[in-house]
């Protein structure tokens, strides 16, 4: 169980780090004048903080104390906007990998409460990856067309 709690704490911190990464991506997009993309990424950052809060509450609910770790400065490789969204997609794939790993640990420990808790995240990650795959598909079709990028920027800003 101790190993599982350590993993939950690690994921708690990774969710906060994820918010930090998306906030940096939002800032990059905003600096490039793409307020819709910035809004989308800012919303992602808020969502990641909500996920971190779920881990925080679950740890407390199971009589474990969340531990806050240092968060490194995020590296955002700018350039084409498709690169930003590709980085985000790859990040979500890493989140999925980590959640699955935690789920497996909970299975191995017969920890049904944690399995139930992580089930929500398993479903959430299917949605997240699908969302970013769709965005990447649209951006691939748009290419570097500024008129297309501005239209899609406005659309993502509606989130």
TrEMBL record:
Start and end residues of each Ferritin-like diiron domain: 1-143
Compartments, record wording: Cytoplasm
Transmembrane region(s): none
EC number: 1.16.3.2
Gene3D superfamilies per the UniProt record, alphabetical: 1.20.1260.10
Keyword Metal-binding: yes
Top-level division of the source organism's lineage: Bacteria
Stored CDD domains: Nonheme_Ferritin
Keyword Protein biosynthesis set for record: no
PROSITE patterns xrefs: FERRITIN_LIKE
Keywords per UniProt: Cytoplasm, Iron, Iron storage, Metal-binding, Oxidoreductase
Pfam families, per database record: Ferritin
Catalytic activity from the UniProt record: 4 Fe(2+) + O2 + 6 H2O = 4 iron(III) oxide-hydroxide + 12 H(+)
InterPro entries linked to this entry: Ferritin, Ferritin-like, Ferritin-like_diiron, Ferritin-like_SF, Ferritin_DPS_dom, Ferritin_prok
The family this protein is said to belong to: Belongs to the ferritin family. Prokaryotic subfamily.
Function: Iron-storage protein.
Name this protein carries in UniProt: Ferritin
Originating organism: Peptoniphilus equinus
């Amino acid at each position: 169980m101790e190993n599982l709690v350590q993993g939950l704490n690690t994921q708690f911190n990774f969710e906060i780090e994820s918010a930090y990464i998306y906030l940096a991506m939002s800032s990059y997009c905003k600096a490039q004048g793409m307020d819709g993309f910035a809004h989308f990424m800012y919303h992602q950052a808020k969502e990641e903080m909500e996920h971190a809060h779920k881990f925080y509450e679950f740890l407390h609910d199971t009589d474990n104390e969340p531990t806050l770790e240092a968060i490194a400065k995020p590296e955002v490789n700018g350039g084409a906007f498709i690169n930003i969204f590709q980085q985000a997609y790859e990040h979500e794939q890493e989140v999925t990998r980590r959640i699955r790993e935690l789920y497996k640990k909970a299975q191995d420990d017969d920890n049904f409460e944690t399995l139930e808790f992580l089930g929500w995240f398993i479903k959430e990650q299917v949605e997240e990856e699908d969302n970013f795959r769709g965005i990447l598909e649209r951006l691939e079709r748009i290419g570097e067309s500024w008129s297309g990028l501005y239209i899609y920027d406005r659309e993502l800003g509606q989130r």
